[in-house]
Amino acid sequence: MDLGAARARLPALTSLRFFAALHVFCFHLAAFRIVRGKSLFYDVASIGYVGVGLFFVLSGFILVYTYAGREVTPGEFWRARFARIYPAYAFSLLVTLPLFLYAVWHTRWTVVPWPVEHLRLGMFLQITLLHAWVPPAALMWNTVSWSLSVEAFFYFLFPYLLKSFARFSGVWLIVLGVLSWFVSLGITAIYNVLNPDGLRLIDSDTYDAFWLSVVKFNPLVRLPEFLIGMACGLYFLRARTSSKLGIPLVGGGLLALGTVIGFSDRIPYPMLHTSLLAPAFAAIIYGLAQPRSLTVLRLRPMVLLGDASYSFYLLHSFLIGVCFFGLGAEFRQWGTMGVLLCLGITCGLSILVYLFLEEPARRSLRRQAKAVVAAPGPTSSAGAAVV
Asked: How confident is the model at residue 377 (pLDDT cuts 50, 70, 90)?
């Protein structure tokens, strides 16, 4: 494939984003004890945090698919990324701010105690997308936004990583992906063996363990997942596409995911949380990127949900809290219908935010950036268009 040629959209991967966000939604239903008891749904929901790992691998793949072989300066890329992620992110911070400040000032309780004593610093870190670098700050304010802090680091590195990756052959891309996976597994295995936090039980209910937070949220620790996605994306661009690969790869990836779900209680939590499933996610992504993959994921309603999945992810935890705790016991008493109603509200609001805030703000910011770049300067009369 010509790396400089125009590339078609990959609607199935857009839809996949919704299912990753939905898995995280289900995890928070379990984490908030809204869904309880042993069942297949609970088993799937209880490891829903792995959906964030799918986002990281998918991000690397899509960015390579979009930018490989094209002349884009780091500044142009960063402006385009800012226009893509920050408007909805800022909106989510505004929406969740009253509840966060109430928790800090009136109950002196948050997911972790650190923001109570370091409120201004923590808010500065959150606004500047630096909070994942400070383990006690990673889950403050809008708790799910730690992954945006990680992604911001990936975006910073991407223009330089892409130049390096372009030098690798197909074989070396595979080697790089495998080595990245081993590095990540090694980090989590070392933590599990040494247990530097001295925990009796290491699971998803542990929020304030310093080194566990480093393993889970630090951008450098999560970087291998992004590298796996990048290697997979560049390999995809260079290989001959074949629709025959789609179903086996997706099926194999889902089989691996199902196996991990079945044995999740026997797998060390840090390893499960961070990149164990990255190769399975890469297989699913590669399979869905093939021509004529799963038609259902190409339907317009599914693609719209995928487009809105970013806002869905940013708002879902807050909306779960509002539905099941802020509005009283009604939603909890309704059981499954309450969960479905909360999901419907979250989907509906996310679509509205995508259509009337996310996309208009992105287009406006990119037009402004393009105008600035194209403005005459002392040594140049024009600049390149923002991608």
From this structure: very low
> What is the torsional sign of CA 73, 148, 269, 136?
positive
Question: Tokens 């590298």 appear where?
Answer: 227
Query: pTM of whole model > 0.90?
Result: yes
Residue with tokens 């509840």: 99
What three-state secondary structure class fits 40? helix
CA distance 35 to 33: 5
Say which amino acid occupies 137. A
Residue with the larger pLDDT of the pair 241 and 62: 62
Summarised one tens digit per residue, pLDDT across range 314-360 is 999 999 999 988 766 677 788 889 999 999 999 999 999 999 999 99
Question: Which residues neighbour 364 within 8 Å (Cβ) at sequence distance 6 or greater?
Answer: none
Task: Please state, in angstroms and rounded to a whole number, the distance separating the CA atoms of residues 292 and 318.
Answer: 37
Q: Is residue 180 scored above 90 in pLDDT?
A: yes
The CA distance from 10 to 12, in Å, is 6
Tokens coding 98:
């009253």
Provide the residue ranges of all domains of the chain, joining segments of one domain with +. Answer: 11-369
Integer Cα distance of 101 and 116 in angstroms? 9
What whole-number distance in Å separates Cα of residue 31 and Cα of residue 14?
A: 27
What is d(CA 344, CA 347) in angstroms, rounded to the nearest whole number?
5
pLDDT of residue 6: 66
